[in-house]
Amino acid sequence: MKTLHLNLAARPYRDYRPLYAVVVAASLLIAFLMLNNVDTYYRYVRETRATRNEIARIERQAGQERSRAEVATGEIRKMDLATLGRQSRFVNAQLAERAFSWSELLDRLEAVVPRDVRINSIAPSFSDNGFVHLTLSCEAKTTDGMLATITRFQSNNHFVNPFPTTENRTGSTFHFGLGVDYKPSIPRVVTK
Predict the structure, then answer these.
(1) 118: domain range?
(2) What are 22-39's pLDDT values in tens digits?
(3) Is 23 inside a domain boundary?
(4) Which of 152, 163, 154, 158 has the alpha carbon at shortest distance from 184?
């Protein structure tokens, strides 16, 4: 059976007004959203221009720093590090020798050396362990002067390893050489 239509009009009646209203409303909404997107885009471009310029400036600086670092690395690779190390060790040794306190050494020698022994010369050599090796040239009035000097050096905690190097007699004077390690109060370590 066929369905009954109650539309009695000569031609069929269709109401397109709700459809047109929806299309117009959707078109207006689309236009509004599109204009909002365009406005947002232009605001984004305008507001981030300073930030983009700052980022570009920082990237340029980073590139310049990278190129400077490459140049510095190249210069470091060209350096003769062995010669530079020898030169710095020499300078450090010279500084340690200049910082050596002669007055402290002479005061301690005065307290240790017996009264009948006279020191003619002192030759220091600086070692890398902080000690200063002293080569002493001495003279005494008696043959017991060398033994007394060695004994007094051994009893003092600032002097270590006294050892005779030479001895001879000239007339009534007894000449002898002595090597001893001296420990200053502020040791200057010399790396060679």
Answers:
(1) 101-182
(2) 999 999 999 999 999 999
(3) no
(4) 158
Q: Bigger pLDDT: 122 or 92?
A: 122
Residues 6+ apart with CB under 8 A from 178: 135, 136, 138, 146, 149, 150, 153, 162, 163, 164, 165
The reported pLDDT for the residue numbered 90 is 80
CATH number for 169: 3.30.70.2830
- Which distant-in-sequence residues (6+ apart) come within 8 Å of 120 by Cβ? 137, 138, 139
Query: Using alpha carbons only, what angle is made at residue 148 by residues 142 and 154, rounded to the nearest 5 degrees?
Result: 160
- Does residue 10 form part of some domain? no
Question: What's the pLDDT at 9?
Answer: 66
Domain assignment present for 16: no
Max distance between CA atoms of the chain, in angstroms, equals 163
Amino acid at 177: G
Let me know if residue 96 belongs to a domain: no
pTM, two decimals, is: 0.50
Contacts of 49 (CB under 8 A, 6+ apart): none
**The pLDDT of residue 58 is above 90:** yes
Mean pLDDT computed over 137-165: 90
